[in-house]
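pinned: reference chain
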Amino acid sequence: MTDMKMPQMTDRAALARNRSRAAPAAMFLHAHAAAEIKERLTEVNRTFQSIAIVTGFPDFWGSEFPEATIVSDADALSLRAGAHDLVLHMMSLHWANDPVGQLVQCRRALQPDGLFMGCFLGGQTLHELRAAMAQAEARITGGLSPRIAPMGEIRDLGGLLQRAGFALPVADGTMLSASYATAFDLMRDLRSMGEANALAGRVRHLTRRAIIAESTAIYADNFGDTNGRVNATFELISLTGWAPSDSQPKPLRPGSAKTRLADVLGTIETTLDPSKD
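pinned: its structure tokens
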């Protein structure tokens, strides 16, 4: 019997090389994510005693949460079942070969009523660069090659939390915009972020200069501002879910309400006559 392996979207060796070249000065998306997570944790009003952070950027996130255990975002996570009351999955899920599998492993690592939070790049990220590169490559070569990782749409991500077994799942997103002198400067910044192309199906040779020049021109024509610069969109998706627990609120069964809505609203209930329109 032949083993059926899941198709690999990400070349993990290339991803590790890209991340090893990341520059601290280019971590502005991580800084925004860290500030967002910390603010949300203050709203939870709970002291967490055992925190784990899943990430491909251990230096940054270790400095932001010195008390946390840092875990590599490998396909198989080094997390003990039921060992943590808070698990954070930070800026890595968009490169996961199996996002639901990552979420399932995080849920299993949580104690009952433990909290999961994740933050990663969403589907609207770099839509300008995607469009410019695709148009330039189609013009010059007559085809397209994989260049930017497919990223989840927010409308689908709450469902991933439910599939992974989380209670009270919430998914929301924040749009951020960054300004660059040219699209080429954006591409160079992506390398400094450790977010260069690590797709398993990528073309393994350097992109032709003509494609870079054409995409830079297309980008400026379509996404330039009045100052002669270009804008780039980054969508940060935040996920929140809880490990199931008997102490959590449960929805009432249909028909089990003990108070009439009309009494709560202080109105008179009117019975509809089905014989009248």
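why pinned: The first strand starts at residue 51 and ends at 55. Residues 28-44 form the longest helix (17 residues).
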